[in-house]
Amino acid sequence: MNCFQEAKRIVVKVGTSTLTYETGMINIRRIEKFVKVLADLKNSGKQVVLVSSGAIGVGVGKLGLFEKPKDTPAKQAAAAVGQSELMQIYDNAFSLYNHTVAQILMTKDIVESSKRRTNVINTFEQLLSMNVIPVVNENDSVSTEEIEFGDNDTLSAVVAKLVGADALVIMSDIDGLFDGNPRDRENAKLIPVVKKIDKRIETMASGTGSRRGTGGMITKIQAAKIATAAGIDVAVISGENPYTLYKLFDGEAVGTHFVRQQL
Q1: For the residues of 216-244, what is the DSSP string, one character each?
Q2: Alpha-carbon Rg of the chain, whole angstroms?
């Protein structure tokens, strides 16, 4: 068995580009598959924490906007509309498999305060002990530059540390880390294992992701640095086919595995 097969407590991060179409509207077929796999992984005995982007993207679609807003008040308004819609989708989808979800919205100041950090850890632990799937997102409707994580890749790594996860899976719009940008270079090769994240690895991560998301490979590298330093194995895989999660947790080599550092 490998580390992902053995993982009991897992954090899975899914991005806006995975959850939505180019129109900004929800990709219902993909979300249904994604939820089915997570529910099945939970049925197998794993504890699951979901870090989900998509509130602003869903809000943009529901409000009929042509693109993601650029100013903070409009982003916050879109997030406020989209977050309730997103949670309703997850609640309905997971309930089909008799699983309960709970919403946790976070900002950076929560983890910077020892008392508030302890409180949020206790909340996670209580929810997991009650067999609930926490669904985490940045509190985009009230966050400002001073208290925002900036991207949910970083948030997912912070959450993985808070809950003492065994593994973090970041689902991306590409298959993992390549030695060049696969969108520009046809011969770019996937790097299956990264034992140490150094300057050479960081320079391979370029680009800013899709127009619907906020991150890119560089934010996933930074998230992997945070998580692996905390003793957590990280996998960056494509979110195009949610069933790929089965392969990963069955022990197959999928995407890029960032190996945890020994504490």
Answers
A1: -HHHHHHHHHHHHHTT-EEEEEESS-TTH
A2: 17
